[in-house]
Amino acid sequence: MIATIALSFGVLFLAELGDKSQLMALTFSLRYRWWVVLAGISVASVAVNLIAAGVGHFLGTALPANAIAIVTALTLLVVGLWTLFDALTSDNDAEEAPEPPSTRNAFLVVISAFTLAELGDRTMFAAAALASNNNWLAVWIGSVIGMVAAGGLAILVGKIAGKHLPERGIAIASGLLFLFFAGKTVLDAFVPSLGGWGSAAAAVIAPALVGIGVAVWRKYGRPAVHDSEPAELKG
Predict the structure, then answer these.
(1) CB neighbours of residue 133 within 10 Å
(2) Which of 57, 169, 48 is CA-nearest to residue 120?
(3) Residue 105: count of CB within 10 angstroms of its CB
(4) 26 near 94, Cβ under 8 Å?
(5) Domain boundaries, given as residue ranges, for the chain
(6) Is 91 exposed, middle or buried (0-12, 13-18, 19+ CB in 10 A)?
(7) pLDDT tens digits for range 47-83
(8) What's the rounded Cα separation, in Å, for the pair 199 and 177?
Protein backbone atom coordinates (compact mmCIF):
# COMPACT_ATOMS: atom_id res chain seq x y z
CA MET A 1 0.00 0.00 0.00
CA ILE A 2 2.89 2.39 0.80
CA ALA A 3 4.38 1.75 -2.63
CA THR A 4 1.05 2.53 -4.31
CA ILE A 5 0.70 5.76 -2.31
CA ALA A 6 4.22 6.79 -3.34
CA LEU A 7 3.54 5.89 -6.98
CA SER A 8 0.27 7.83 -7.04
CA PHE A 9 1.90 10.81 -5.36
CA GLY A 10 4.70 10.90 -7.95
CA VAL A 11 2.40 10.52 -10.94
CA LEU A 12 -0.09 13.17 -9.81
CA PHE A 13 2.59 15.62 -8.67
CA LEU A 14 4.39 15.42 -12.01
CA ALA A 15 1.11 15.58 -13.95
CA GLU A 16 0.15 18.77 -12.09
CA LEU A 17 3.42 20.58 -12.86
CA GLY A 18 2.62 23.25 -15.41
CA ASP A 19 -1.02 22.16 -15.59
CA LYS A 20 -3.80 24.77 -15.57
CA SER A 21 -4.78 23.86 -12.02
CA GLN A 22 -1.28 24.67 -10.75
CA LEU A 23 -1.36 27.97 -12.60
CA MET A 24 -4.76 28.62 -11.03
CA ALA A 25 -3.27 27.95 -7.60
CA LEU A 26 -0.55 30.51 -8.28
CA THR A 27 -3.13 33.03 -9.48
CA PHE A 28 -5.43 32.48 -6.49
CA SER A 29 -2.46 32.91 -4.14
CA LEU A 30 -1.86 36.39 -5.56
CA ARG A 31 -5.39 37.39 -4.60
CA TYR A 32 -6.34 35.41 -1.49
CA ARG A 33 -4.65 34.32 1.74
CA TRP A 34 -2.35 31.34 1.19
CA TRP A 35 -3.99 29.11 3.79
CA VAL A 36 -7.43 29.71 2.29
CA VAL A 37 -6.16 28.67 -1.15
CA LEU A 38 -4.38 25.61 0.22
CA ALA A 39 -7.46 24.55 2.20
CA GLY A 40 -9.66 24.95 -0.86
CA ILE A 41 -7.26 22.94 -3.01
CA SER A 42 -7.18 20.20 -0.36
CA VAL A 43 -10.97 19.88 -0.20
CA ALA A 44 -11.27 19.88 -4.00
CA SER A 45 -8.47 17.29 -4.30
CA VAL A 46 -10.16 14.96 -1.82
CA ALA A 47 -13.45 15.15 -3.73
CA VAL A 48 -12.05 14.86 -7.26
CA ASN A 49 -9.67 12.01 -6.50
CA LEU A 50 -12.38 10.14 -4.62
CA ILE A 51 -14.46 10.28 -7.79
CA ALA A 52 -11.50 9.18 -9.89
CA ALA A 53 -10.34 6.32 -7.66
CA GLY A 54 -13.77 5.30 -6.40
CA VAL A 55 -16.68 5.99 -8.72
CA GLY A 56 -14.54 6.07 -11.87
CA HIS A 57 -12.96 2.71 -11.07
CA PHE A 58 -15.88 0.72 -9.66
CA LEU A 59 -18.74 2.07 -11.77
CA GLY A 60 -16.94 3.31 -14.84
CA THR A 61 -19.05 6.46 -14.85
CA ALA A 62 -18.44 8.70 -17.83
CA LEU A 63 -18.36 12.37 -16.87
CA PRO A 64 -19.94 14.91 -19.24
CA ALA A 65 -16.66 16.61 -20.07
CA ASN A 66 -18.10 19.30 -22.35
CA ALA A 67 -20.78 20.37 -19.88
CA ILE A 68 -18.20 20.49 -17.10
CA ALA A 69 -15.92 22.59 -19.31
CA ILE A 70 -18.69 25.14 -19.88
CA VAL A 71 -19.49 25.42 -16.17
CA THR A 72 -15.79 25.69 -15.35
CA ALA A 73 -15.25 28.41 -17.94
CA LEU A 74 -18.23 30.39 -16.65
CA THR A 75 -16.94 30.10 -13.08
CA LEU A 76 -13.49 31.35 -14.07
CA LEU A 77 -15.02 34.13 -16.17
CA VAL A 78 -17.09 35.37 -13.23
CA VAL A 79 -14.08 35.23 -10.89
CA GLY A 80 -11.96 37.11 -13.42
CA LEU A 81 -14.51 39.87 -13.99
CA TRP A 82 -15.16 40.14 -10.25
CA THR A 83 -11.44 40.53 -9.56
CA LEU A 84 -11.03 43.18 -12.26
CA PHE A 85 -14.08 45.08 -11.00
CA ASP A 86 -12.69 45.15 -7.45
CA ALA A 87 -9.32 46.39 -8.68
CA LEU A 88 -10.67 49.10 -10.97
CA THR A 89 -13.46 50.49 -8.78
CA SER A 90 -11.43 50.90 -5.62
CA ASP A 91 -10.12 54.34 -4.63
CA ASN A 92 -7.48 55.17 -7.24
CA ASP A 93 -5.51 57.35 -4.86
CA ALA A 94 -5.56 55.02 -1.87
CA GLU A 95 -2.21 53.68 -0.75
CA GLU A 96 -3.67 50.49 0.65
CA ALA A 97 -4.61 47.57 -1.53
CA PRO A 98 -8.31 46.88 -2.15
CA GLU A 99 -9.88 44.95 0.70
CA PRO A 100 -9.70 41.23 -0.11
CA PRO A 101 -12.85 39.13 -0.35
CA SER A 102 -14.09 37.46 2.80
CA THR A 103 -12.42 34.21 3.80
CA ARG A 104 -15.64 32.27 3.32
CA ASN A 105 -16.24 33.60 -0.19
CA ALA A 106 -12.62 33.02 -1.21
CA PHE A 107 -12.72 29.47 0.17
CA LEU A 108 -15.88 28.63 -1.79
CA VAL A 109 -14.50 30.19 -4.97
CA VAL A 110 -11.28 28.15 -4.76
CA ILE A 111 -13.12 24.89 -4.04
CA SER A 112 -15.60 25.42 -6.89
CA ALA A 113 -12.99 26.44 -9.45
CA PHE A 114 -10.58 23.62 -8.63
CA THR A 115 -13.23 20.92 -8.46
CA LEU A 116 -14.66 21.87 -11.82
CA ALA A 117 -11.22 22.33 -13.39
CA GLU A 118 -10.03 18.90 -12.28
CA LEU A 119 -13.16 16.97 -13.31
CA GLY A 120 -12.31 15.34 -16.61
CA ASP A 121 -8.73 16.66 -16.50
CA ARG A 122 -5.74 14.46 -17.35
CA THR A 123 -4.83 14.12 -13.67
CA MET A 124 -8.24 12.66 -12.90
CA PHE A 125 -7.85 10.09 -15.66
CA ALA A 126 -4.35 9.29 -14.39
CA ALA A 127 -5.75 8.58 -10.92
CA ALA A 128 -8.52 6.41 -12.39
CA ALA A 129 -5.98 4.46 -14.46
CA LEU A 130 -3.84 3.84 -11.38
CA ALA A 131 -6.89 2.72 -9.39
CA SER A 132 -7.82 0.17 -12.04
CA ASN A 133 -4.71 -1.91 -11.22
CA ASN A 134 -3.95 -0.88 -7.65
CA ASN A 135 -5.62 -0.44 -4.28
CA TRP A 136 -8.08 2.41 -4.81
CA LEU A 137 -7.70 3.75 -1.27
CA ALA A 138 -3.93 3.98 -1.64
CA VAL A 139 -4.32 5.68 -5.01
CA TRP A 140 -6.78 8.15 -3.49
CA ILE A 141 -4.43 9.04 -0.64
CA GLY A 142 -1.36 9.38 -2.86
CA SER A 143 -3.24 11.39 -5.49
CA VAL A 144 -4.59 13.85 -2.94
CA ILE A 145 -1.14 14.38 -1.42
CA GLY A 146 0.45 14.83 -4.85
CA MET A 147 -2.15 17.33 -6.00
CA VAL A 148 -1.98 19.35 -2.77
CA ALA A 149 1.82 19.34 -2.88
CA ALA A 150 1.82 20.71 -6.43
CA GLY A 151 -0.70 23.36 -5.42
CA GLY A 152 1.38 24.26 -2.37
CA LEU A 153 4.44 24.74 -4.57
CA ALA A 154 2.48 27.10 -6.83
CA ILE A 155 1.21 29.04 -3.80
CA LEU A 156 4.77 29.45 -2.52
CA VAL A 157 5.91 30.81 -5.88
CA GLY A 158 2.93 33.16 -5.97
CA LYS A 159 3.58 34.55 -2.50
CA ILE A 160 7.27 35.12 -3.20
CA ALA A 161 6.47 36.90 -6.45
CA GLY A 162 3.68 38.86 -4.82
CA LYS A 163 6.06 40.53 -2.36
CA HIS A 164 7.82 42.29 -5.24
CA LEU A 165 4.77 43.38 -7.22
CA PRO A 166 2.25 46.21 -6.69
CA GLU A 167 -0.99 45.00 -5.12
CA ARG A 168 -3.30 46.65 -7.63
CA GLY A 169 -1.24 45.29 -10.50
CA ILE A 170 -1.49 41.81 -8.99
CA ALA A 171 -5.27 42.07 -8.80
CA ILE A 172 -5.56 43.17 -12.43
CA ALA A 173 -3.14 40.47 -13.62
CA SER A 174 -5.09 37.85 -11.63
CA GLY A 175 -8.34 38.88 -13.26
CA LEU A 176 -6.82 38.69 -16.73
CA LEU A 177 -5.35 35.25 -16.00
CA PHE A 178 -8.76 33.94 -14.99
CA LEU A 179 -10.17 35.20 -18.29
CA PHE A 180 -7.36 33.33 -20.05
CA PHE A 181 -8.12 30.11 -18.17
CA ALA A 182 -11.81 30.44 -19.02
CA GLY A 183 -11.07 30.73 -22.72
CA LYS A 184 -8.51 27.92 -22.74
CA THR A 185 -10.89 25.58 -20.90
CA VAL A 186 -13.54 26.02 -23.60
CA LEU A 187 -11.05 25.68 -26.45
CA ASP A 188 -9.47 22.53 -24.98
CA ALA A 189 -12.90 20.93 -24.69
CA PHE A 190 -14.48 21.95 -27.99
CA VAL A 191 -11.49 22.53 -30.30
CA PRO A 192 -9.00 19.84 -29.27
CA SER A 193 -7.37 19.99 -32.70
CA LEU A 194 -5.66 23.23 -31.67
CA GLY A 195 -3.47 21.39 -29.16
CA GLY A 196 -2.15 22.84 -25.92
CA TRP A 197 -0.07 25.66 -27.40
CA GLY A 198 -2.65 26.50 -30.03
CA SER A 199 -5.45 26.85 -27.52
CA ALA A 200 -3.20 28.93 -25.26
CA ALA A 201 -2.36 31.28 -28.14
CA ALA A 202 -6.03 31.70 -29.04
CA ALA A 203 -7.17 32.06 -25.44
CA VAL A 204 -4.71 34.86 -24.72
CA ILE A 205 -6.33 37.17 -27.30
CA ALA A 206 -9.36 38.17 -25.22
CA PRO A 207 -7.50 38.94 -21.96
CA ALA A 208 -4.83 40.77 -23.96
CA LEU A 209 -7.47 43.07 -25.46
CA VAL A 210 -9.09 43.55 -22.05
CA GLY A 211 -5.68 44.33 -20.58
CA ILE A 212 -5.03 46.96 -23.23
CA GLY A 213 -8.45 48.46 -22.52
CA VAL A 214 -7.74 48.55 -18.78
CA ALA A 215 -4.37 50.23 -19.38
CA VAL A 216 -5.93 52.87 -21.62
CA TRP A 217 -8.74 53.51 -19.13
CA ARG A 218 -6.33 53.85 -16.23
CA LYS A 219 -4.21 56.31 -18.21
CA TYR A 220 -6.88 58.43 -19.88
CA GLY A 221 -10.29 57.49 -18.55
CA ARG A 222 -9.99 57.95 -14.79
CA PRO A 223 -11.62 61.02 -13.28
CA ALA A 224 -9.18 63.88 -12.84
CA VAL A 225 -8.12 64.65 -9.28
CA HIS A 226 -8.91 68.29 -8.49
CA ASP A 227 -7.22 70.33 -5.83
CA SER A 228 -9.86 70.93 -3.17
CA GLU A 229 -8.03 73.91 -1.65
CA PRO A 230 -10.00 77.14 -2.18
CA ALA A 231 -8.37 79.51 -4.66
CA GLU A 232 -8.33 82.44 -2.22
CA LEU A 233 -6.17 80.44 0.23
CA LYS A 234 -3.50 79.71 -2.34
CA GLY A 235 -0.43 81.86 -2.17
Answers:
(1) 9
(2) 48
(3) 13
(4) no
(5) 2-218
(6) exposed
(7) 988 888 876 566 544 556 677 678 777 877 887 787 7
(8) 14
